[in-house]
Task: structure prediction
Amino acid sequence: MDLVPFVRRYRPSDRAALADICVRTAHEGGDSTSLYPDPGLMPSLFAFPYVELEPAFAFVLDDGTGQAVGYILGAPDTPRFAERFRAEWLPLVSERYPEPEGEPTTPVEEMLVLLHRPERMVLPELTSFPAHLHIDLLPRWQRRGFGRALMRALLDALEAAGVPAVHLCMVRANTAARAFYGRLGFREIDVPDPGPVLYLGRPTARAGSAA
Result:
């Protein structure tokens, strides 16, 4: 019998798979191991806090055997999430990942600065897009419609919770991701001096969207 992949809610037993997916997609959509040797760093920044603080908005792509091969993680209220990140999540990881002194000089230190500054997520230009998300799939599962299915699951959950719109932040160099988001109705949000990243947003409702 052929296995049928499907989207389901995150379970605590998916934690190791979540970390693996995060590490293998964290550098412009590709493997980040050479840049960040500690395999817990990127998940501690971009994956684990979401499933700990907002588990109702965490979904995975199950390959049909129970193994997660992709995920989408969301926070419905970004300012509130940033507050909880500092108060509840950061104390759990700050001893392992201390804040660097002075300006960052390595990729690891740059990520540590982001970890210790969750307020960076709160920008006035994003007020109309209160939720935000992260989505990643292992390479084998990309370009097969599964990213769209994950996105639909989160958008539906956010809409049901009364959240009108969502945004994401992505590295400009990841052109494949930019095209994917464009097909799903995400449009660029004008944020002054965003540096090497783009901010994209869209309504959560299905009406008038591509997703």
